Please model this.
Amino acid sequence: MKRGAWAMLVAGLCCAVPAWAGDPPASTAPAAAPSRDAALAQRLGADERGMRRYVLVILKTGPKRVPDGEERKAMFAGHFANIERLAKAGKLALAGPFAEDPDGWRGLFLLAVDDLEEARRLTATDPVIERGEMVAEYHRWYGSAAAMAIPELHDKLAPKRP
Model:
């Protein structure tokens, strides 16, 4: 069930939505195909379909919960710093937590790499992985290159940190 729901969510990133709402336009002539922005496609690493390869990393509860307190705060500060580092390096398209989950799903990374070993290297230094708070599962994924624009857009939406 979880993988099916996740697949539906991710598929939504790739589906086209009509520009109109309600009744279709009066004209029955076919709409002009949108023009391809070759510069944007190149910047985002898109192939001829506007897609690219990624590695989806599912973070799950690990075997060693770090106790509440300063040590746990420092671990998560390092985790968020790692996320920021990967995003600035152009390796992380998307990251975020799952809602509380009885199966132990904690969060995800969408890494802009197509090699599982590179994905493992990029996440190996994350404090939550190093400490055993979380473990990672790695899955190859092929999706819209537009996901690469998420960090830039997020920076425009998120409050500035001191």
Observations:
- The longest helix spans residues 70-88.
- Residues 1-21 have pLDDT under 50 and may be disordered.
- The radius of gyration is 19 Å.
